[in-house]
Structure formats: structure tokens, C-alpha cells
Amino acid sequence: TQTWTSESKIIKDAWTNCWPMVGLANNIINDLGGIDPTALKMTQNQFDAYIAEARTLRAWAYYNMFEIWGGALPLNISSGADIPGTADPDWNTSCKKIFDFIATELDESVSALPKETGDNATRNRVNQGMNRLLKARLLLNAPTFIGEDHYDECEALSKQIINGDFGTYQLANDYRTIYDLDNNTCPEVVFAFACEDGQGSTN
Fold first, then answer.
1. Which residue has the higher pLDDT, 200 or 180?
2. Higher pLDDT residue, 144 or 171?
3. Which residues sit opposite 74 in a β-bridge?
4. Are 27 and 78 within 8 A, CB to CB?
5. What DSSP letter does each residue of 65-99 carry, written as one string?
6. Sorting pLDDT into bands at 50, 70 and 90, what band is 7?
7. Is the Cβ–Cβ distance between 58 and 25 less than 8 Å?
8. CA 17, 18, 20 angle in degrees (round to 5)?
9. DSSP character for 39?
10. How far apart are alpha carbons 66 and 60 in whole angstroms?
11. CA 20 to 30 Å from 46, out of 3, 18, 85, 148?
């Protein structure tokens, strides 16, 4: 068995990496909300895609924290420095609120995101495939998170991803290419972290 404490590296890293991501995403989403895209020399579609990317990254950060802290998490979409209390005083209600928040963020932002066309242009950015894969993972773990069975919905969504509804992906001929330094060109990879050589802790 594993006994986790507040000083366990995986616990500390999850919070220190994910909570700031939520704050940065909140800042971007709230700041862009009051700007005309033309003032940034952007089209409405480009502008909407940036906001959708930030919302999906915020949902991803929340998902990673949700796996560890569950209903103890605060639910924050403001740009303020104050950290609110838990989403709800009741553990199960709080879990449901956070679960629904993540699911809604993903569902509302997916259509504005680009699809990976196979040219690797979006493989290290948030795209529709990454968004839907995260939603499928949320549904897969719904029994643990909120005590609800969403396996059928998870299966249907996974089949859509496999069938190419949200981008062009295929199994790699050699599984080792998934972990290559240039894995952003691997057709099996849905979301690759862009890291400078020697500066990233994740490939």
C-alpha cells in the first residue's frame, strides 16, 4: 500500500502544476471575453479557438486534480487571487458539480477547436481529439467520481475518436515511436507536450 502525505512529490506537483494552470486559463478566458477579435487582427474562428483551447486546458487541469482531491476541490473561474472553498460542503454534491463542470467545459469548447488532419500541425496543441479523449476518460471513471455508470457513452465516444470523427489518428507501426523525441509526428499520439530539449519533465 501507499501512504500519501502533503509532502509526497506526486501530490505537491499535481497542485503546483495544475492550480496555476487554472488561474492562467481563467485570466486568458476573462481577458479575451472583453476584446474584439479584430483588435487583435484575428478572425472570429481563430479567437474562439484560443478561448476553447484555454477552457479545455482548464478542464484538463481540473481533471488531474479531481483524480486526487475529489470533492475537496474548490471550483474557481474568476481571475481573483483568492482561493474559494470546496465546490459544495457535501462531498458527493461537490464531486458532481466538479464532474459536470469538466464535462460541460469540454462539450462547449470542442466544436471551436481544430481537428488534427494528419500533418501534425495540432498534435502538440489542444485539438478536438484531445478534448474528446479527456471526455472519454472522465466518463470511464464516472463510477469512481460520482457513482454513475457512463460506460456506454464512453464506448460510443471512443469509437468516434477511433473512426476519425475528431481528427486523423492511427496505431503506430512501432509502439516505440510513441516515446521518441519527435513523437509529435507519431500518428498514434493525440496530445504531445511541446518541450525544449533538456527543459521538460514529460515527453
1. 180
2. 144
3. 86
4. no
5. HHHHHGGG-B---S-SSPPP-BS-SSHHHHHHHHH
6. confident
7. yes
8. 80
9. G
10. 10
11. 18
Kindly report, residue by residue over 84-125, the tens digit of the pLDDT: 889 999 999 999 999 999 999 999 999 999 999 888 888 878
> Residue 203 — pLDDT band, cuts 50, 70, 90?
very low
**Residue whose cell numbers read 487583435:** 40
CA distance 57 to 59: 5
| Whole-model pTM over 0.85 | yes
Smallest CA-to-CA distance from 71 within 91, 47, 44 is with 91
With b meaning 16 or more CB within 10 Å and e meaning fewer, what string describes 140-172? bbbeebbeeebeeebeebbeebeeeebbebeee
Maximum Cα–Cα distance for the chain, whole Å? Answer: 56
Answer whether 77's CB lies under 8 Å from 54's CB: no
The three three-digit cell numbers of residue 146, written as one number = 460520482
Positive or negative, the CA dihedral 90, 93, 96, 100 is negative
Using alpha carbons only, what angle is made at residue 189 by residues 111 and 45, rounded to the nearest 5 degrees? Answer: 25
Nearest-5° Cα angle at 142, 22 to 30: 20
The type of residue at 126 is V
